[in-house]
Amino acid sequence: MNEMFEMGPIRPPSEAQSLLIRVTRNCPWNKCEFCHTYKGEIFSFRSVEEIKSDIDRVKEIVDGIRQTSWSMGFAGSLDQETLRAIFSRSARYGQAFQSVAGWLYFGGTQVFLQDANSLMVKTADLVEIIKYLKEKLPSIERITSYARARTLAKKSVAELKDLQQAGLSRIHIGMETGYDPLLQYMKKGVTAKEQIQAGKNVVESGISLSEYVMPGLGGKRWWREHAVETAKVLNQIDPDFIRLRTLYVRPDMPLYKKVESGEFIRLTDDEVAAEIRLFIETLDGIHSTLVSDHILNLLEEVQGKFPDEKEKMIGVIDRYQSLPAEERLCYRVSRRLGYSRSLDDLQDPDLRRRVGEVIDQVRRSGNREETMPPEKVEKEIYSLMENYI
Ligand code: SF4
């Protein structure tokens, strides 16, 4: 069995159970200040034949796994128990085999088309690829992809409808902000007007739309405008999903130099919470589901469906903001260490003890005589987030 097929580096958190099929390589834009993913990599198209051949490889692996099931006495079954047994032996096979076995384990129903902008592919070619995927792997129920708003603004609704009918179920757009000066500053290569056009095109086509927003992106200078103008753009689109992914600035991002020089001043966690509160307050007249499914987000519980759960979401932020400073610090460290998913976790005495020890250690580190100043404590907590990207 030739078990190789090509996979790109990333997918959205909600596609963790999806099979990854690489349609293009890297990002055709690759200039955003806050993005490190494809820096130094050149964008290229893959031919339809190359992609079909990858799909054939996946099909061969699925067939191979079914044969293994027979040989292990499971009568060709691909239920979870069988797949667990096969997966436990899969270390001797490559990443492609493990990824297909894992995909089947989670139902074998979802596919994510990589990389950053699959909608660059000619519509007729993408339709052909999607149809081939569904023909070869009939268990597929959902096919999703990232796309740039500028590309989508230029696609006709008729083309998007063709893709929807072929089986493209959802498009994820990295909107990040709807505030034009910030879009320019971050070199996003798109305007708020194009974002609105792109979003409306997708909604009209019947493809589910997920818009990613980046809390913290406005920094100290533009946090209010970022919150309000982004919400206003989304109010015009009314996407199915609004997903939060908080800014984290790594040294390999262009933005890092601006942070170091003091040109871009990052928000603290508490300031980001205030920004998200203003953002949610400004969202109006929509029926979207807000999702906080990225580990970089401080408050995972800020999620729900508009309009009914708007007040509930604001209530979570109010609850966080009303905590005493030391409690907020405890929760932040707990979250950044991966211990907490909810403010209720602060009720757990064991967790509080463990987190308290870490905070004491951080405060005392560096100098035995003096306590670390608060801004350095902030820096230490911020650096914990690096583990997640
Ligand atoms: S368009 Fe997306 S993938 Fe490309 S540089 Fe910007 S954020 Fe990164």
Description of the structure:
This protein is α/β, with parallel strands linked by helices and 389 residues long. It is 48% helix and 11% strand. The chain has 15 helices and ten strands. It has helices at residues 48-71, 80-88, 95-105, 123-136, 149-154, 157-166, 180-185, 192-205, 219-237, 255-261, 269-282, 310-321, 325-336, 349-364, 374-384, and strands spanning 19-22, 24-25, 44-45, 110-114, 142-147, 168-176, 208-213, 241-244, 289-291, 304-305. The strands form two sheets. Strands 1-4-5-6-7-8-9-10 form an eight-stranded mixed β-sheet. A two-stranded antiparallel sheet has the order 2-3. Helix 1 packs across helix 3 (95-105) and helix 2 runs antiparallel to helix 3. It starts with 18 loop residues before the first strand and ends in a 5-residue tail after the last helix. The mean pLDDT is 92. Bound molecules: iron/sulfur cluster (SF4). Iron/sulfur cluster binds at residues 27, 29-32, 35, 37-38, 116, 148, 174.
